[in-house]
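Q: A reviewer asked whether we had any structural model of the full assembly, not just the individual parts. We don't, so I'm hoping you can provide one. Inputs are below.
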Amino acid sequence: MTRFPGEDYIGRVEIFFHFDPLLALTTFIASRALFALFLPAVLTVLVTLVIGRVACGWVCPLGSLHQFFSFLFKKTKLLKPKKGKEPQIAWKYYLLIFILISSLFTLDLVGIFDPLSFLVRSFTISVLPVVSLAVSNLMGILYQVGLTSLGDSLVQFFENLDINIVFLQGLFIGLIFVGLVLLNITRERFWCRYICPLGAFLGFLSRWNVLTLRIDEDKCIDCHLCSIQCQTQANPYPNEEWKSSECIYCFTCSSICPTNAIGFPLRLAPEHMKSIDLSRRKVILTSFLGILAAPFFRIAPTRTRASEKLIRPPGALPEEQFLQKCVKCGECMKVCPTNALQPAMTEAGPEGIWTPMLVPEIGYCEYYCSLCTQVCPTGAIQELTIEEKNKLKMGTAWVDKNRCIPWKFGNPCIVCEEHCPVSPKAIKFIQNSVEQPDGTIRTAQAPVVDMETCTGCGICENKCPVVDAPAIYVTSIGETRSERNQVLLDLLENEQDPYSE
Amino acid sequence: MKRREFLKDLTVGSLMLRISPHLLAQASSYPDLAVIEGESPSLITKEAVKYLGGMQHFIAKGDKVLVKPNIGWDRKPEQAACTNPDVIKTLVELCLEAGAKEVKVMDNPCNPARRTYVRSGIQKAAKEAGAKVPLPNKHKLKKLAIHGDSIKDWEVYTDFVEADKIINVPIAKTHSLSRVTLGMKNWLGAIGGNRNQLHQNLDLAVIDLAAFFKPVLTVLDAYRMLIRNGPQGGRISDTKLQKTVIAGIDYVAVDAMGATLFGINPKELRFLPLAQQKGHGEFDLEKLKIEKRTI
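A: Here is a predicted structure for the entire assembly that you could use as a starting point for your response.
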């Protein structure tokens, strides 16, 4: 789990993603680049080629979660596996084809469906905040009944976990997560059976593996228990119908078999097993959909014109490349110390849903922090040292003179200037006299933004005492990563240290 | 007793209470202010407290003490945005030596507390000295009556109210609204709520807050002070090595003395004469007994 220990640099918490060959493949295809980050995914591929989808059954955390809930639903009799015709398992294969084809046209949709992205995103944006807030409420009760020392130690413990609790779309993303968990009531491991494109990818690879199911015909009493209880519709009985591409080696069948007829002997010359039968027509149709997906997702103007609200994290690649690489996993949002990074809804266009953006009304970019750049699994946010980060602009602050306290009322304030972290400050003052409705004239120091030194970190907007719609606000213009989203041409020409003699 | 009489008595009484420590201090042989310069932050702090009568003069056996540094910003000690960790460490040690039952060190920073506590070096230093260093806990925020002229009530961290004695340990910095931030402004770090709104009437706000928290001792850290780009600074060139601490019971006097480090005449700072008018202390340095030493 990603958490901040109070230091500037953290280890490779994102390494889990690098074992995911689907993320690797689609990111490579969409961004037209191979990079060494995803080397561990080769291991997953090799393991699957040799011994099948063991990763699905024994490693995948989302698989374990669905397994756990399936178990729970079975215990509570909400889920009763029955004998009978099961739905098509082919859907996840079509989804995989669709994702791969669309990535060929640089549309990277994998993040929406990849199990690891899905899991980390759901936990970051919804599950962990809910748990954290629930505990916080409980602690509130502890304090109310006077158990302060117990409350203190619990608060300290949870502070150390450093969980961000404010998220746009928290409920929305949470409902998707809950919905998918509840689908386990209809079929065990619903996600793994019908949706998971990574499972489908590994399924393709596992068709020739050496770990094959074998039923001892002499012992078998044709009770069908193995097929009924199979977690993934791998169909152990009859033996020749077993699908190695679906089996996740949970060994439920062999342990449930009343006569111990099922084993998984190693076969060095694997025989051809029943594979997924994809209809050729549907594959072609899916491919067409994949081709159409890219333009369909790009009818919106987000690629031709920068969105003012779309302030990307520091180190984010230029928008087009960013969208090709970002897998919407939410690692950056999780690690942000001020909770500033939020999942986009429409700001980045349809293809940019759940990509990170800085929302200064919720948090701001902490000056001496580059954690989000360190945890990005695909390099959509490039890894930066703190010094490198502080040379970048994410956007520019603007003063709304109609709302700013000194500009509008002639009252003192200076809160934005006080919080501005750069030295010399990007917010400076001019004396402003303003006539009030009663005819009096008041004078106060009023803020003006120095475009040259402003980094667009958003702390001014975040701390502005005009809380509903801050009187100073950041928009994306001036961001270093964009050549077009600029306002003053000669900004970078005279970089002078105003303190140097 | 009639209401009016009661209020009158209350006003007179509270004024007496507020002035009396100051009068007592003058009556004793101890100076009003100890201004100590020297190479070691720890030694000058010890020396300053010694001149004021030693820590046992302020802390009784079994006291729960709260030491309030400025941990406002995610900045390193050499950037002089937060109180010097050695000064804090020394004060915690002195409190424990004087028999304090518990010493807490805390602040409500502008940047996230977990970061500022670490980067300022204060968390480590204070823990080493034996203090508890709790993060500001929202469950402990309570709206309390401040009884001020500008602040009637505000959300306060109850840690500050529960402590028997409070020691204020600000750092000397520039500030574009109050010109300098010293001891009295440091109390904005003991409160929650939308405290940024207080800037519209900052001079009155800091007077009310200082009177509410009533530190038994104020130790102004000017070992390395921030002379521009305050209150955060950033570059080492924004700071100046002054190698001084200023300690006193009268927080108005400490702030007045602190202002002179910036070359500012105390009477130019609106909140100092105002605080004196309200009877919180003396800002006229001529009238104070000041012990200045270099060690």
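A: Points you may want to mention in the reply: The first strand of chain A starts at residue 214 and ends at 215. The two ends of chain A are 48 Å apart (CA to CA).
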